[in-house]
Amino acid sequence: MRSVILLLLLIPTVSFANIWGRTGHRVTGHIAEKHLTKKARKAIKELLDGNSLAFASTYADEIKSDRSFSSYTPWHYVNYPFAKTYQESEKSEFGDIVVAIDKCINVLTDKNSSRADKVFHLKFLVHLMGDLHQPMHAGLEEDRGGNDIQVQWFGEGSNLHRVWDTNMLESYGMSFYELGNELNNATSKKERKTIQQGTIIEWLAESHDYANDIYKSVNVGEKLGYSYSYKYNSILFERLKKGGFRLAKVLNDVFS
Ligand code: ADE
Ligand code: ZN
Ligand code: ZN
């Protein structure tokens, strides 16, 4: 009996189904890494002990398996109605992705922050700029960003949130490195500069608008597969690419 209780305690509170798949975060980090200023690159290298942004990008999901970090779970998303803007919406007392990104930027730019605090909030910022671009991280409260909308993915049980976090990327089959290079190389400098304009709230609003379309893209229980990928992969890739370029922009500003 005691060992059963012990086992139950070890089960993570949030399953890995809940993450903008690790590949997505790594793609965003890998693209951003290519567009850092010299100054930002140096500061980041020191804080991450020489590790890459792609490597650091999944830390914020890994700590979800430790209950002592449970207060950070609401940092990964924000839910609000489609009839409202983020500014008009009711805010969660536990924080949300916008408040969290702001907090990370503040810790990183405060000269009184400890190194440990800077490391933690840098890893979080790298992660959250990915989540900000996953449309279903800016969805509706009632179905937890599509987590409660069951669908099938190539015959296996899944949900609409998970399709966009993980399933589409897994089925596409490229590594984060290949997809990151591909998306980066296919973008001109001019396009990149245009993508890097705007604010966190404007970038969130893009995700929220896409979420509205994505909700309409399926029926509950629908069998999804090749034709869904064919139709929506271009949006997925656009979000990853924009997340990467904008992560670089935010980091360059933080470490300027
Ligand atoms: N939990 C509740 N809402 C969520 C969302 N939009 N994304 C991820 N996890 C959630
Ligand atoms: Zn997610
Ligand atoms: Zn996340």
Explained architecture:
The chain has helices spanning 2-10, 22-33, 38-47, 53-56, 59-62, 97-109, 115-132, 160-172, 176-185, 189-195, 200-216, 226-254; strands at 150-153, 156-159, 223-224. The protein is mainly α and 256 residues long. The chain has a single domain (17-254), classed as P1 Nuclease. It starts with a helix and ends with a helix. The model is unreliable at 6-18 (pLDDT under 50). One zinc ion binds next to helix 5 and helix 7.
Short descriptors:
256 residues, mainly alpha, P1 Nuclease, three-stranded mixed beta sheet, 12 helices, 3 strands, binds zinc ion
Distance between the termini: 57 Å
The overall strand count is 3
Helix segment tally: 12
State the CATH architecture. Orthogonal Bundle
Radius of gyration based on Cα positions: 18 Å
Oligomer: single chain
The main β sheet shows up as: 3 strands, mixed
Sum up the overall morphology in one term: globular
| The CATH top-level class label | Mainly Alpha
Low-pLDDT windows of residues: 6-18
In short:
This protein is mainly alpha-helical and about 260 residues long.
Task: Summarize the SSE layout with pairings.
Blueprint: H1 2-10, H2 22-33, H3 38-47, H4 53-56, H5 59-62, H6 97-109, H7 115-132, E1 150-153, E2 156-159, H8 160-172, H9 176-185, H10 189-195, H11 200-216, E3 223-224, H12 226-254
Parallel strand pairs: 1-3
Antiparallel strand pairs: 1-2
Helix pairs in contact: 2-7, 2-9, 2-12, 6-7, 7-12
The protein binds adenine (ADE) and zinc ion (2 copies).
Residues 18-20, 134, 137, 161, 165 line the site of one zinc ion.
